[in-house]
Specification:
Rossmann fold, 5 helices, 178 residues, 4 strands, 30% helix
Length: 178
């Protein structure tokens, strides 16, 4: 079975690795490379596009010249790898709710502005799953990896009727409080 994985961050790569382990063909796309035809060419789609928003850290020197948030820097660094002419800092566009992939797939957002999904990582669109920051909101890398692995198990179960993959958490799991 062919699975499109929208996101090359921790959740997306964890999902891709797990799905490949059980024999699925996985193609990993960057957020900006996702297209409307994507869903039609694959049996399932895992949306793990991460977040485009960042939290400001009130640390001394944050406003100093040359200091950038990772969310500002990474899109520039990625473009610089592909385009040696890149000479200015830019940011990746946020997923457009109406004209972008979210609108094309008819996906919903919850009150926090993240992808709506059920406890098994499935969105409202058949064969479309959401994991990591795209559905949880900003969180720690360990949560993204766990979500990617669990979403992979859900996809495998949907495509084959069963799974041998671990599902370390459910989509509605929350951190323990002291």
């Amino acid at each position: 079975m062919a699975v499109a994985d929208g996101g090359s961050g921790p959740a997306g790569l964890a999902a891709a690795q797990q799905l490949t382990r059980v024999g699925h063909t996985v193609v990993v796309y960057e957020r900006d490379d996702l297209a409307g035809e994507l869903r039609r060419r694959h049996d399932a789609l895992v949306l793990a596009t991460g977040t485009t928003a960042w939290r400001e850290l009130p640390v001394p020197g944050r406003e100093s010249r040359g200091m950038h948030q990772a969310m500002e820097y990474l899109p520039y660094a990625n473009r610089a790898c592909h385009d040696p002419e890149a000479d200015r800092l830019g940011t990746a566009p946020a997923a457009d709710k109406e004209d972008g992939l979210i609108g094309q797939l008819g996906l919903g957002l919850d009150e926090r502005g993240v992808l709506r999904r059920d406890s098994g990582f499935a969105t409202g669109a058949p064969g479309v799953y959401a994991a990591g920051d795209a559905a949880r909101g900003q969180s720690l890398i360990v949560w993204a990896i766990a979500e990617g692995r669990a979403a992979a198990a859900a996809v495998d179960r949907c495509l084959t009727g069963a799974t041998r993959l671990p599902a370390p958490i459910t989509a509605d799991a929350r951190p323990m409080r002291a």
